[in-house]
Structures are given as C-alpha cells and as structure tokens.
Amino acid sequence: MESLIELCDLISQNPAQFADKLTWLCNRCPQPEALLAGSPRVSHSQINAILAISRFLSKTVDHTDNRPKSLILTFFRSIPTSFHPSFWPQSFPNDSIASFFTDFLAYVSKSVESDPDFSVDVAGFVGEAVVAAIGNNAGENWESSAISRVFLIALTKNFVPMLPEDGEKLITCLLDQFNLPVQVPSSPSERIGMNSGTSSSQSSPLSNNVNSHNSSYSAHNELSSMVNDLSQMSVSSSSASTTVVVNGSGVTWKNGLETMGVGLDGGGVLSRQQVASFEEESVEGYEKQEIAYKLIGHVLDCVRIDNKLLDQVRLIAKKQLQSLSAFLKIRKRDWNEQGQLLKARISAKLSVYQAAARMKVQSLASLDVDGKTSKRLLLETLALLMDAAEACLLSVWRKLRVCEELFSSLLGGIAQIAVTRGGQPMRVLLIRLKPLVLAACAQADTWGGSQVMLEIVMKTSCQIIESGWTKDRAPVDTFISGLASSIRERNDYDEQVDKKQGVPAVQLNVIRLLADLTVSVNKSEVVDMVLPLFIESLEEGDASTPGLLRLRLLDAVSRIASLGFEKSYRETVVLMTRSYLSKLSSVGSAESKILAAEATTERVETLPAGFLLIASRLKDMKMRSDYRHRLLSLCSDVGLAAESKSGRSGADFLGPLLLAVAEICSDFDPTVEVEPSLLKLFRNLWFYVALFGLAPPIQKTQQPTKSVSTTLNSVGSMGTIALQAVGGPYMWNAQWSSAVHQIAQGTPPLVVSSVKWLEDELELNALHNPGSRRGNGNEKSASTQRSALSAALGGRVDIAAMNTISGVKATYLLAVAFLEIIRFSSNGGILNGVDSLSASRSSFSCVFEYLKTPNLIPAVFQCLTAIVHRAFEAAVFWLEDRITETGNEANVRESTLFSHACFLIKSMSQREEHIRDISVSLLTQLRDKFPQVLWNSSCLDSLLFSVHNDSTSAVINDPALIVSIRSLYQRIVREWISISLSYAPCTSQGLLQEKLCKANTWQRTQQTTDVASLLTEIRIGNGKNDWTGIRTANIPAVMAAAAAASGANLKSTEAFNLEVLSTGIVSATVKCNHTGEIAGMRRLYNSIGGFQSGGTPTGFSGGLQRLISGAFSQQPPAEDDAFNEMLLNKFVHLLQQFVSIAEKGGEVDKSQFRDTCSQATAFLLSNLASGSKSNVEGFAQLLRLLCWCPAYISTPDSMETGVFIWTWLVSAAPQLGSLVLAELVDAWLWTIDTKQGVFAHEVKYSGPAAKLRPQLAPGEPESQPVIDPVEQIMAHRIWVGFFIDRFEVVRHNSVEQLLLLGRLLQGTTKSPWNFSCHPAATGTFFTIMLLGLKFCSCHSQGNLQNFKIGLQLLEDRIYRACLGWFAFEPEWFDANNVNFAQSEAQSVSVFVHYISNDGQSDARGRGHENGTYLAETNGQYHPVWGQMENYAAGREKRRQLLLMLCQNEADRLEVWAQPINSKENTSWPKISSEKWIEYARTAFSVDPRIALCLVSRFPTNTNLKAEVTQLVQVFITISLLAGAQNCKHLTI
C-alpha cells in the first residue's frame, strides 16, 4: 500500500504527465459491472486501488479524466452490499475494514469540499448507504451488523454531504431503529415540569408545540422518563447544596452524601433506583446511541430539517443532558458492577452525553437570531450545558479522560453559543461562568482535582472574553473585575483548612487565570483593571511577604508587563527591580535566617524568570532600549551590592539576571554609536562578570569538569575564582555560561573614555565598595587579578610590565579579554545585526577599537595587543573545529571566515600604523591557514578596491600616509595574487577578469587606474614565475589550462609567458562585449513588442534541475520568458550542431564554437543575475551542453574553449560550482567508457611501430586511426589541469565538490588497464595520478576524516595504475616540439617530487594515523594487492619501486627533450645489487610484466636480469606443478 500511496502522490502532482499510470490504477479498481452484480467480492489489490484513487481525488482539483470519479461513485453505490462478509477478501478482519472505511471516507470528504459537482453526485448515494447500514445494524446477523457498525463509526468521523430529503429520512430512521429514549409530555403540567428541570433561574419553558414521535414506547422508555424526573429533583437539590462563595471565605464544597441528597428521606431509595435504571441499559446500546447522536449532529450541519423533527431532536438531547447530573452523582460503591466493567460503562455513557451535547448545540444553528422562542431555547441550552459542566467538575470520574473530553465539549458548546449569539446569552453566561471558574480554580490543585479541567476553563474563558470584548463590554468588565476582586479580599479559610497548609488553591489559580485572560485579550483596558490589584497586593496586601501567593503574583505581573503597554511595563519593572535589590540587602542579616524558602525561590527563580519573560516578549524597540538600560543598571547595582558582601559569592546574585540580559541584548547592534551612559553600564557588567568568575573559561586546555557548589555558602578565595574562571572548569550554572556567550555578541567595545585613562581609573575604583577587600588598595587582590590576566593572555605580556597595572585596571583588562575572546569562541566572531554576513559584522571591528585609544601606557598596549591575538586564535580554533561541516553550517563557517578576512583587508587603510601591521599579520596567518580566502570574490573585491573606498578624509589630507597605504596595498595585492596564481591560475584569472569587468563599468577613472596599478608586472607562464619552489602552477597541464582560461590566443603546447593585467583586460573586454550583446538583444526584443508569455516548467528532470533551481530565486517578468525561450532554443540548437559535426568526423570551426559558447555563457549568467526562475529545465540543458560539448568534440581547441567558459561560470557564479563540476565529472567518466584520449588503451598506433622508426620494427606498419589519439590526449591534458585547479580551490571549503572529484578518481582508477600506453600520454597520465595522490592527502586536513579507509584504498589503486604503466616497454613520441617534450619530462618530475615528499610524511606518522586499518589488513586479502603479510612494509617497497621507475622515466624524457643541454643528475643515489633484487621481486609480485619490462628498461643490469630470470623459472615450475596436480585430480 505504501508504494501505491507514493505513486498516487506522484500522479496528483502532474496528472497529465502520468495519465498512463492513472489508467493503470483505475484498471486495478473493482469495475462497475462487477460491483453491481449479484454477489460481488473484492480483492486486497482492489481495496488498495480504491483507496489510492480516492486519495488522488482528494489531492487533485483540476483533472480531465472522469473515470476516477465514476469508480468512486460506483463503489459508494455498492456500499450496502459491502455489509455482507462475502464482499470482502477472505481473512479480512473487521479492524482492516474499519481502517479502510475511515481512510476512504476521509479522502472522499476532502474531495467533495473542493469539487461541488462531485459533492452533489456523492450526496445522491450517501442516504441510501447510511439507511442500509442503520437497518443492517439492527439486524440479527452479527457479522453483517459489525461491518455496518464500523462503517457508521467511520462516517461519524468523516461525514460526507447528503440530500436534504435524505437527511430527514436518516434522522427518522435513526429514531426508529435505535429506539432512542424520547418522551413527549401529554399535559401542560408535564411540559412545565420537564422544562423546569434545569437548575438555572434564567431557564425558560420549551414551546408546547412538540409532537409525539410515531414509534411505540417500551417499558424501558417509561423507566428512563421516571429516572429523568427523579434526576431533576437531584439536580435542584444538588445546586442548592453546592455553594461557591465569591466574596468571603473562599469556596465550600459539601460532602458526597449531601450533594446526592442521601441524608434526606428516601434518598437511598432514589440512588438505588437510578443505579438500577442505568444498569439496565447495555454498553452496546450506549454505543448505538453515540453513533446516532453523532450522525444526527452531522446531518444538522449539512441540511435543514422539519421543525417538528428538530423539536424531537432537541428534546432527546435535553433529556440526556438532564440525566447527566444524576448519573455523575452516583457513588462508585453504589454500582453493582465494579472494576473495568464499571469503567467501560461509565466511559460509554459519557461518550453518549458528549454526542448529545454536541447535537444539542447543533440543533440551535437554524434558530432565528431575534426570535423570542430562540432566545428561550438558547438560555435553556446554556443552563443545561452549564449544569452538566458543573456536574463533570464535581464528579468522582472527573479524572477519566472521557470525562475531561465531555467537559471540554460542554464548555466548547457554551463558548460557541456565546461567541455566535452574544447579547443576553453572553450576559447570562458570564453570571453562571464565574462560579464555575472559581470552582475549577479551587479544585485543580487539590487531591483528586483535575488540572486538565482547569486548563479547559481557562481556555474557554479566554475565548468568551475575547469575543465579548468587541460585542458587549459591560458584562465582560464586570466578570473580570469580580474575579480580580477575589484576589484583593482576604480569604477566611480558618474553619476549613489549616493555615499551615498555605494559600488556598483558588486564589493561586484565579491569579493565573486572570493573567491568561489579560494576555489573551491583550487590551490596555483589561491591564488597567487587573494589574493595579496585583501590584497593590504585592506591595501592601498578603503578598507583600514571601510566599506562594507572592511568587504567583510576580509571575502574573511579569506576563502582563510583557504585553508592552508602557504604564504597566514601567510599574512592573520598577516593582521587580526593587524586589530583587531588597533581597540582596537582606542577605546576611539576622532576619534572613528565618525567611521562608519562597524568599530564595523569588530571588533565584521567579524574578529572573520574570525579567527574562519581559525581555523575550517586548517588541517595541524604544521600550526594549529602555528595558536594556534598566536591566544593565540593575546588574551594576547588584554587582556593587554583592561585591561588598563579605564571605559571599557575587555570582549567586548576578548570575540569575544574565539570561534576561542576554535576551534583551540579542537584537542589539554593537557597531552603532552607543551613548556613554549605556556603554559604562556594559563595562560595569563585564567588570563584575570577570570579578565574580561568571565568564566561561577561555584557555584552550581546560581542567576536567568537577562539581562545584553554587550556593551562597560556597566561599572560595578570589584568587582561586579568578584563575579558575580563566582555566576552568566552569563553576556555575551552564545556562549562565550560554548567556555570557550571547551577551558578548551584542556588547559594544568597552572603550568608555578615549582621552584620559585616569578618569577610567576613578570610575573603575567606584565599582568597588569602599570597605571591600578587593578594592584598589588591596595589593593581594591586585596581584590575583594580574595573574588571572596573564593566564588569559597566554603569557604574551611580560610579568614585569604587568606589575605597573593597577588592580582595577587589571580586572578591566581581564573583562575585555573575556569579552573579546568569547565573542570569537561563541559563534566565530559575528556580531548581532542584519542577517547578511559582511565585514562590518566581524568582531574584529570591536577588538580593534581598543588599539585606537591614544596615549596608552606600554603595559596596557601590550595587553590590548595580546587580547587581539588571543581573540584571533579563538576565531581560528572555531573555524578549524567546524572544518567537517556541510550544508548550511559549512556556508556559515565560510561566510564567517570571509567576513573576518574582508575586515582585516579594509583595516590595512587605518591611520594607526600598529593597526595596519597587526591587520597584515593576522591576514597573512588567516590566508595561510585557510587558503580558500584567496579565491573568494568578496575578499578580492576588498583587496582591490578598499585602497580607494576606505580612505577617510583624515587620510586623504595626509599625502605621505596615502603613499604608505597604497604601497602596503600594492605589496599585499601582488603577494596575494601571486600566491593564488601559483595554486589555481585558472580560477584566479577568472576572478581577476570579473573584477576588471566591474572596474570597467565605473565612471571614475581613478579607481580603475588604482586597480590596474596593483596588477602590473604580474606574469604567469611555463617559464620563470613570481614564486619559488614547486607549486600547482608548475604542473604543465595546469599551465596549459591557465593559458586557456586566460582567453589569450596561445598554444598550450608552446612556451608562453603572459601578463595577467593585459591579458585579463582583453578577456574582460570580450566578456563585457558578449554580455552587452545579450542585453542589447533583450532591449531590441522588448522595443519591437515581440513578447509571448513563456511557459513555466512544471517539474524537474533530475538532480541538476533541483540543484540549479536554487540559483533562480525570483520570478521574472512575463515578457522576458519568450525572449529567454527563443535564445535558449537557439543556443541549444547551435551547440547540438557542433556535437553532430564532431560525431560525423567533421572539423568544428574554432572561432565559431568559441563565440557561441561565450555568448551562451553570457546569456546564462545574465539570466542568473536577474533572479529568474523561469524555464529551469531549459537553462539546465544549456549548462549541461556547455560542459559536455568540449568533451564530445575532444580537441585541444575545443577543450581550451571549455576551460575558458567553465572558469567564467565558476568565477562569476560560485554557486554553480557544484553543478558545473558534477557535469564535468560525468563527461570525464563518459570518456573512460568510450575509450577516448588517455583512456584509449586499445590504440596501437604509437612507438616504433608507428611514427618513429617503422622501417626497423618487425611486421607491417599499423594503419593510422581515424581519430588522432594525440589530439584527444592533449584535450585530456588541458582538462585535467582544470580539475587540479578546481581541486586547489575547493579542497578546504567544499566537501560536496571534493566528493565529486573523488567519484571522478574512483572511476578513473577502477581498472589499472584503462589507460592508453601511447608515449604521448605519459605526462597526462602522471598528472592524473598526481591529482589522485593530492586528493588522498585530504585525509589529514579534516574535512574528509570520515573517509580515511576509502582514501587509502584509492591511493592503493593509484599506485597500482602507476606501476601498471611500466608494464610496457619504454617508448618515445616525436612531437616536433621541444616544449612538449620538456613538459612531459617536467610532469613526471613533479610526480616524483610529490611521492618523494609523501614518503617523508609517511615516516612522520602516516602509519600511526591508519594503524587500525593497516593492522586489520595484515595477513588478509587486499582488493588491490591480493594476499598480504605486512601491508606497511609492502607499501613502502612498492613506493620505492615506483619512485625509482618514475625518476628513470623523468631522466629519460629529459634527455629526449634536450639531448645536448640536459644536466646530469648527480643527486640520484647509486642502487646496490640487493636493492635491484628487491625491486625485481616487488615488481614481479605486483605484475610479472613489470619485472620483464624492468629488464628492457635496464638492459645492462646483469643482477636484475638474473633475478627476473630466476623468478620466471620459479613461476613456470610452480605453474607446471599446479597444472599436473590438477590433472591428477581430474584423472582420479
């Protein structure tokens, strides 16, 4: 069934597209002719199909196929036949039938809501089905009756519409078949007696126009009538004996005997008669009544019925509700049944009452609003429901869930009448509601009371008050005032409850109710009625002393204050502030020892929770600003008061307030200009946070957490607290630590006075009490603070220099250290503010403010500088700790990193030289640790344009400073670009071209000139470059790709040395021209009025479309769709033509292909920039063709064009990086499957048999292949250079793209024989292998730590493929190009250099990292190497063999490239004979062909030849013996 549901949901999304699937589903349903036959039977699959079709109709509105509706209607028509067991599959239980009907009717009821025509069609069959079910339910066949009953139960849950005439028939049938107890009074006196059966004085008699029902009455009905009459007496007596005193001594409840009237004469007889009457009714009868009442209620909702029949329905409901009170007053011991039987009977009967109450309320829907009769009926119904609710509240069964549901239904009906009718019913209701509310409040917290019922009363009261507020305020005001006045008056509960038991529950719950009402209504008038009474009680009444009443009132006033009405807010906050400060003043005094426990609860829990509630709910910014000031002022006062408490911990007083401060500061932007008064309050807060040790530890290595007491008696020396606060573990509540982290993000820099630090010294001294032992005059305390400061700064400041700092100044600097380090450790150093992460959100903007302070003494300056470096370390630690994150978390991490980098770049233009120096130092460290900043567009923007944009007026007026800043920027820019080019020259050039395009659009020539001056004299090429050592750009394939990405007309196989600036300007101009062409065509198309509304795609064809849809975030204007579609079709057609030409063996025009691809790329990017989301499938196809066309054509020229446009795409739109790489990886794997280029391992036209010396080779020369393999190899060479470039860019910050590259390498090395042995492929092959080894090295950088075993296996495959390359005899390729031969030798040399360094890193600990994996593979079968004894030893031998072979190949190719000028390699060590033997054995163990080719490669090495000969002989001998043994076994 689950699969059908999934298929149904898929079809409902696009019925036209999946019409065949819908037909298949319809064919699986029972067909009409079969259902309408004599004795139909359905199968399991048909039942599931019917459910699926009904689900489809419920989810789909507009569909043209009418067959699903026809099938559902036919099945509905056949429902009467489904009441026979033969209709269902064999062994199909009733539970499954019930589940089917429930789901089926739920889907159909939802379908008819949205389709009126279908609703009419269904209504024509509903009446017949329901009447049949009712008749069948009354039959004697138990199985048929059970099926019809489950259908009726399902119908009560999901009713479907029916015809009006069927509604009356259904009600009549229900009254007849289920024999519902209806008694029509025969005389006016009986009518009066019946209509006065309610206990409300507001009730009115029913109308006399109630006709008798046409059914006969049984003795059971007569007995029920008698019970009902008796119940009326009970109701009257019970209402008299139940007293709720509103103004006086509380609430008095009589005992159970009194409420039942047992103490009266004949009371016991009455109770026994009631029990006997109820026990005569069966539980099954109750279930039938419940079904009937629910169905009648649904019918009343759908259709209007005859008034006479409606009167009968009302009478039935009334009689049921009148008997409810008598039923609930029967004691448990009076029942003859006990245990589960009694509980089942009670639950069933209460369900009947619930259905009857709902039916009673629904019967009022057709009443005339202004009619006199309708008003009487409304008042009567309200009285009935209210009496019933009171009975539920007093019942011994009140804790049963069904009783709680009944109570909720009764109050829901009361609220519905009050809300819809208003007027007199509302006034009457509020009079009756108040005693009920008080009763619920009095009972809730007592033994046996129901808290759920109190919640229901509160919810209903709020609903009624909200409605009555706009319709009739006078009774609402009276109701609220009456409840509020009960709080003011002192309750006299001495006679009933011992005073030691505390405040009565009614008072506490009424307070809570009033608070709920006030918050729900959210009107200032209600607040003005309630709050003054609360505050008066708190200040002068019973709640002025600690106790439960005060705690509840404080919670209530804080909730009311959080509404944001200014007067109530201010009064409440002042009251709570005074209360909190008064608790501090009493701590330590004599009377504090005899205070109640509630006093501590008030200070530690209630008041802080109230402050937090107000902070979290205030919305008005002006009020939030005022509250922030008040809270910080309170913290300052608390800190000062707590600091003077001898032997007490100030953290206990200040800590509870931190949560509220954190919440009120959560939206505060610390970068805006702050008033000095507020800034000083922030400073005071952090001063006390540092003094009391409330800040979380900031040292990297912390002590293990231990349990520390946080009570007021936890006395410790301040030296211990200060040092432990720095080093840990944290001593206080973990929530306080989180609050400090949050406060740090919204705290401005604590630079209060930027002129005279002496003034700050005096202000800081004022933060200590004069008599405090921690004041400025206490040298021991000062020494402690300096020690803590030294620990916080990591020992960066000389101790002798720190001794010149005073104690309070040391505490202040410690507070600054805590604040600034916590800023970066909490969320990486991003401040509160707007959602977008930019340089202005970097916390470095705060920490640098301290360094701008003039005339600092050296020791303080050293401390502030050390704080900057410690904050930077915290930021780096946060970034490194999240290196494995993916998805949104990874985006946040990268945005945080780039924000810091941009700010540091902009800070290099600061006037202060020391700030510039620190900025350069931190930026350099950040760049070295996180190289991805080199290729971030925003960082490059800041680097190129900040030199002009960030120059302040003060700087502009200082020419020498301008020159110094420009010189600094020029040095950093050149270093930055040189490094980025040395690792990823393609992406770097693409980014620079984008920036030149941006500069080209400026109207101001000065900025363009500045940018150009920064890029002068920067060159790249395959000759001499601006960097030292071997880097990625030294790989010839990467430089070939770089030449293609530059856009210059260069031959990648020839030597080149291009200027980045001049080449970038040319390429940027070309890109701008193509972009302008697209914009011009769009404007032309608009001007001629050629708009046609384009179709919006209705779905996605794969993962690419789902991913790319995120890039097109906004709907474009409708007139652009036609232009986009026209141009899309044109570009797709042109690119497909190029592919077709290449497949037919034709030659693709280089310039035409390049122009078309460039224009298509400009068009795609322009659409991306416009935010269009139209025709996603079309743009996805265009992107796919731009990635695949160069691979299809597979020539160097096409691949150069491909690298140019791919670089353009990923540079201009980094969000497309994963999409482009995914398509390129698929295209690369396709070349493996089709055996092209470097993977054409079956091509033989190479070596001596081909071009070099065919006349000396044996046999006939081979014919030249149709497609030149060298061309395809050169294309692969450029392509792999682009992949290496992308790897360097994404290796540190994109796990998704790294995994895509991993997929590429897995497919490449799946078989060691995938590769061509053509000698022209040598450099390309080893470059691919180099990319693989670089990828495997990612196991140590963190973001691929979870893939260590997979990376180890990939490395083994790479080693196997490399060794397999030497399974062929060495050959040469004459390209008539010295540069190509030299690049081949260089490619192998770079590979040799890498694996040589890789071996050194192995010796430093690689085995330890993979120790677990290596140990497990020892003595086992390896998927690459086969059976192994010692993996680590074997790996090292294979590496040494590969290193020797590659070095020989590099030397050989070097001599081939430059036979005269090649330098002799003197560094290569001499190989001993034992080593040659080891090489031979290792090669033979991998592949015997490698050992044989060793002899060919070193023909003069006799030791090698002898060892290989012996190995071959041994191998042959073993093979012969094994063959003979097999033959022997076969013979036997």
UniProtKB/TrEMBL annotation:
PI4-kinase N-terminal domain sequence ranges: 293-1464
- A Pfam match is PI4K_N
Q: Which family does it belong to?
A: Belongs to the PI3/PI4-kinase family. Type III PI4K subfamily.
Which GO-annotated molecular functions does the record name?
1-phosphatidylinositol 4-kinase activity
> Sorted alphabetically, which keywords does the UniProt record give?
Kinase, Transferase
Q: Which residues cross the membrane?
A: none
Q: Where is this region: Disordered?
A: 186-218
> Has UniProt tagged this entry with the keyword ATP-binding?
no
Q: Does the keyword Kinase apply?
A: yes
The protein's organism comes out as Salix purpurea (Purple osier willow)
Locations of Low complexity compositional bias? 195-218
| GO cellular component annotations of the record | cytoplasm; plasma membrane
A Gene Ontology biological process noted in the UniProt record is: phosphatidylinositol phosphate biosynthetic process
Q: Which PANTHER family match?
A: PHOSPHATIDYLINOSITOL 4-KINASE ALPHA, PHOSPHATIDYLINOSITOL KINASE
UniProt name for this protein: PHOSPHATIDYLINOSITOL KINASE
